[in-house]
Specification:
Number of helices: 0
Largest sheet: 7 strands, mixed
Shape: globular
Low-confidence stretches: none
């Protein structure tokens, strides 16, 4: 399936910012919705943010107001802008594609797809 490559991770002090990128290796990058997940050692993988082709977004409560997900279909790239970073944000962040946007009255939710990037490490120090 589609190959995804994440970049932009690194080490940052608490309160700092990072921008993650997810680029597709193919010439086209068209999905109805995509998501960013993260996983820390010993913990389950967690959906952090998701975005639809209409640029409607969802965020886990712990990052609302701090993270912003965006999509540039022309560049086959999805971004995750991370600000006011906290030590608990430390994890490997993964881009996910091939999922679905499920709409209902009052909002929508993302169903995980089968395409994953290799991940990029984000470490936030105290």
């Amino acid at each position: 399936q589609v190959q995804l490559v994440e970049s932009g991770g690194g080490l940052v002090q608490a309160g700092g910012s990072l921008r993650l990128s997810c680029a597709a290796s193919t010439s086209t990058f068209s999905f109805n919705a995509m998501g960013w997940y993260r996983q820390a050692p010993g913990k389950q993988r967690e959906l952090v943010a998701a975005i639809t082709i209409e640029r409607r977004t969802n965020y886990v409560d712990s990052v609302k107001g701090r993270f912003t997900v965006s999509r540039d279909s022309g560049k086959n790239t999805v971004y995750l802008q991370m600000t006011s970073l906290k030590p608990e944000d430390t994890a490997v962040y993964y881009c996910n594609a091939g999922g679905s946007a499920n709409y209902y009255t009052g909002g929508w939710y993302y169903t995980v797809g089968t395409s994953w990037g290799q991940g990029t490490q984000v470490t936030v120090s105290s």
